[in-house]
Structure formats: C-alpha cells, structure tokens
C-alpha cells in the first residue's frame, strides 16, 4: 500500500457512516482532478442501479442490463465511457466485497488523467468504499434506503435483515442467492457460514404467509446459528432447531429445511433434507436432481431424530438449491414449471458466475408465470472449486443409499 492509499483509507474510515461518498468525492477531486463521483447501488430485486445521492436531473435508476454502469456491474470489470462533447472520461468501477455485489462507483476524470494507473487507483478506492459501506450499515439506514425502488413489506424487511448477503466467495467455492418477490418475500430464507475447515449452508422455508412465516423463519435460522456456533454437527443443529420450533408452536407450524456442511479440504458433504427445498447438481453438461432421504420438517413433532447423509462434490460441480415456489410454479394457463424446465434453466445459465445465476433463473421463472405473484421463490447457486491438494474420489456415488438419479437434462 502506498502512502497516498494509506492516507485515503484513514480519511474514508474516519468519515461519518452516511458521508463516505462525500469523503471519497473530495479525495478523488484533490488527487485525480475528478469532476464527478457518484455511487450507484443494486436494488433488492437486482433489476436497477439506484443513485445514492442523485445529482439534479439524475434521480432515475439505471438499468442493470442496458446501461454502461450496468454492464460494468454484470462483467465485474472497470469500464470506460467517453463523455460527449468533451475530453472527460467516465470510469465505472464495480463495488464488490468478497463476492457480494454492492453497486458501481462512477468517476469522471479529465481525459489526460484517465491512465491505466488512475484506473488501478480508482479500483482500489471502489474496493475500500465497499468494505466501509458494509461497516457503516451498522450505524445508518442511508445505503439500505437508497437500494429501494419501492417499499418493502414488514415481512420482507425482517427476511432481508436476516440474510448474510447475496453472494460470497472463497478459494474453494462461490455462492450466489436471491429471494423473490424481493420486496414482499415472507417465508423463504438462506444462511451460510465458513471457517478454515468447513462451509455450512442452510435453505429454509417457513410455512404460512406474511409476518407469521417471517417470524417462523427467523426462529429457525437463529436456532440453527445458535447450534452451529455451539459446535454441533448438522444433525445436532437440525435437532436443536426442531426442538426450539416445537416448543414455540407445538407442531402447529414447521419449517422445511435443507442443511449442508462442506468439508473444504476434501469436498465431502453432509446433508440433512428436512422438507421441501430441492438440491440439484450440474456436472459437465448433465443436470440432475440429487436424491436425498426425506426427513421431517423442523418443528413438526417433539424431539424428532435427524441423520446426515453424505456425498462428494468435485471441482467444477455446480449445486443449485430451490424452494417449492420455483419447481411448483404454475403458468396462467395451468402448466406446471416442473423439473424439466428447472433443469433447462440451470443448464442455460452454465456460463454465468454463481452470483448472477439465481437472479437469471428467477427471471426465467417470472416470464413463465407471466404475471405478478406473491408466492415465495428462492434460488441458491454454489460453484465448487475445491483445493489443489484436495483428496477426494474421482467418481463418487451421489449417496451411499442412492436409488439412482432422475433422467438428466442435456443441452
């Protein structure tokens, strides 16, 4: 880190939580002659980029797909745009933290100062800003408020606050996830946590609608976190959450859950299937549902017993988890979405990074439905890279008691 970088970092970190962009704007004006600095944030539905502090006449959101800023967001690469009738250049820099795509920092520089070295500096500033935004959100609503193009329901507010993020990346894996309808979700949720040895991933679906479903999912996710942080294995985590939900609701409400633990060094996976979320795998060009032994949803009966099954993932595998709001969707004509359509959607997004796959699949689902719906839909995508020295089988069975895969869907 250069002395200038260190000075900039201290300056931004000392800014008020809501004034990070102002501090960056002042710093870049002084160091690079920046004529304009603006932050755009991806909205909850991943459809537009909203300006954090809109300039006069620039209040409208930008398309995430048909604007220079949106293309920089999608490619996750800096993009340049020559300003009309002038010598200035707009630089659009992705603001991303450990795989979590936050938005775009747009900086206008004089043409003679738009050098490769300047782009490197701006990229560093965008990375710094992203980290500081995540810290600042503890103390201000400014950034979350700017992400909204409409009002969230109270149930959706509770669900989004519960999430770890919408993407995460490490040497061994990359994860992307999305909830729909983004501004009115109620029962579906996901959670993950990783350390040096393992990744734990949970997909939950609380029964019911509105606040009832959101409260139920909140109880389940926090019970699973409590058990995980206590050091319990995933069968123990499921059992503890099951008891917590049953104690509260006495079997009247339950939570469908898919709970997975990945051993980072080997690709060995333990899984508890306690309800409706489905697990799919794309290996090469073949997409197939991973058959799991169904166990009781959490909270249905007192002191249910859970057992983990095992399988292995290989480098290049893509796992896909969906709620029943995806595979049970129905078109206005009464046609069921079904497993074949889901397999086609997974295959068609094979070249996209994990962070963007769930949104792409849910967009295809929305086109199939052809109408607004309040049904929850959740999609989580995990790409497995493994470790170079991983010790795992070359062609492992899906599961020890595998009854055989469903017919694969191919390109």
From TrEMBL:
Cited Gene3D superfamilies: PPM-type phosphatase domain
Record-linked SUPFAM superfamilies: PP2C-like (SSF81606)
Domain of life, per lineage: Bacteria
One Pfam family recorded for the sequence: SpoIIE
UniProt keyword annotation of Magnesium present: no
Region (Disordered): 390-411
Name by which UniProt lists this protein: Phosphatase
Molecular function per GO: phosphatase activity
Domain PPM-type phosphatase: 170-384
Phylogenetic classification of the source organism: Bacteria, Bacillati, Actinomycetota, Actinomycetes, Kitasatosporales
InterPro entries: Bact_Sigma-Reg, PPM-type-like_dom_sf, PPM-type_phosphatase-like_dom
Compositional bias per record (Pro residues), positions renumbered to this chain: 394-411
The entry's keywords: Hydrolase
